[in-house]
Amino acid sequence: MPDDDLRILRNRTFDELAIGDSACIERTLTRQDIQLFAILSGDANPQHLDPEFAASTRFHGVIAHGMWGGALISAVLGTRLPGPGTIYLGQTLRFLAPVKLGDRITISVTVDALDPATRRVSLACRCRNQDGVAVIEGEAEVIAPDERIERARTALPGVRLEVSGHDGLKRLLAHVAPMPAIRVAVVHPCDALSLSGTLDARDAGLIEPLLIAPRARLEAAAAEAGIDLSGLAIEDVPHSHAAAARAVELAREGAVEAIMKGSLHTDELMSAVVARESGLRTKRRVSHCFVLQTPHYPRPFIVTDAAINLAPDLEQKADIIRNAIDLAQTIGVERPKVAILAAVETVTPSMPATLDAAALCKMADRGQIEGGVLDGPLAFDNAVSIAAARTKGIVSDVAGQADILVVPDLESGNMLAKQLMYMGEAASAGIVLGAKVPVILTSRADSRDSRMASCAIALMLAHRYRASPP
Question: ∠ CA 244-247-251 to the nearest 5 degrees?
């Protein structure tokens, strides 16, 4: 085919056609394809749009609208054979098998009959998946063009879907509404962001805050921001280090059920939490989880560890996974799917992350890591895209549908999480697990919704810890 085939549309006139001529295109079904077709057609059947509902049907997952394949047949007729100038007269279709997310479909048309008197052409139409299984068959009748047409392809407009993805906080708050608020030590909230976030969480019924900070500095920050501190419990301490130590002491005594970071540095707070004399350490390594929800993925998921463990070894990664599984179960994922990320999906001795991934999967096989389904190494695309996994021939219960993404180190995790937040439009919450109480680890750049979601997750964890202490 000429090098400019992707830029130029050329047709075949009736006189240039012969019985047996054929043309085809390939297309891999993505979630966006289904969403776009639903928008255009108005067909919001949950079999196509609701993964939870679709999983309970005879097809055990989301499938394409039947006419999605029909539209692709039209694309072949209109752009390849006969091409521009073709007049569509009729079409029959037989739907033989479902088209699932990630299926690679070959759409072909073949000339079956020609009528010179009317320039009518009959074409056999077939759609087959990557396994050669026929999913759609039918016949098309068209009038072929009588003039040669050659034109530059029209650039299609970019389409940006505004799909559900930012309603997570609303649903999360509705879920935790029946739970009574928990007592939270807010450590050194000496800026407007920390104070306003604390009051928002209190007003939402999530926490009963105890502010631990130098009173003079706290009141000055509140006055500058126009925030009323009346009615709030305050413990006066000389500085941020003392505030962290006091919060840990209160947690150890059971006087508070969670700790929330204010305007002090993360290292200062976490050093107090993990100190041997803190009384908050458990048999597990402490680790951080981002709970993320983006419009471009069908459900919330966890990225870990992107804030605490710089370069975890194998056993530390095992604890990071155990903590993430506990969190996933707390937020309602009974048996989470855990993708252990690396740059490639093959075990490669020169890439230690792939060796760790393989070892962690074997540990899960032997019962050393329980409660989840593990697979790795998986590259990021294979972990979140069924289409990418199938293209690479990966057969996995985790690939393309991960609930937990385990990163090789803090740097890669931090970059991944922030890319998802700032370029992937992900809503986020952050929480530290592995201590005897949850630690709400907020950032100065966090939005109000992020702070609220973090408090809601801490509330869920604290209630879980009452029945099953970590």
Answer: 140
How many other β-carbons are positioned within 10 Å of the β-carbon of residue 464? 16
| Other CB atoms within 10 Å distance of the CB of residue 203 | 10
Tell me which amino acid residue 85 is: G
pLDDT band with cut points at 50, 70 and 90 for residue 3: very low
What would the pLDDT profile of 190-249 be if each residue is shown by its tens digit?
Answer: 999 899 999 999 999 999 999 999 999 999 999 998 999 988 999 999 999 999 999 999
- Give the length of the chain: 470
Reduced to 3 states, what is the DSSP secondary structure of residue 442? coil
CB 106 within 8 A of CB 147: no
Assigned CATH class of 164-282+436-470: alpha beta
Containing 449, the helix (H) or strand (E) segment is helix 448-467
How, if at all, do strands 373-378 and 439-440 pair?
unpaired
Q: What is the pTM of this model?
A: 0.75
Buried b (16+ CB within 10 A) or exposed e, 73-96: bbebbbbbbbbbbbeeeebebeee
Confidence of residue 1 (pLDDT cuts 50, 70, 90): very low
Residue 303, token pair as written in the block: 């990225």
Nearby residues of 458 by Cβ (< 8 Å), 6 or more positions away: 182, 184, 206, 207, 258, 260, 431, 438, 440
- Check: CB of residue 72 under 8 Å from CB of residue 127: yes
| CATH topology for the 283-434 domain | Isopropylmalate Dehydrogenase (3.40.718)
Domain boundaries, the chain: 3-152, 164-282+436-470, 283-434
pLDDT digits (tens, 9 = 90+) for 138-179: 999 999 999 999 988 877 666 555 544 456 667 788 888 899
CATH no. for 3-152: 3.10.129.10
Please tell me the least confidently modeled range out of 6-10, 279-283, 371-375, 436-440.
Answer: 6-10
Residue the block writes with tokens 């055990």: 60
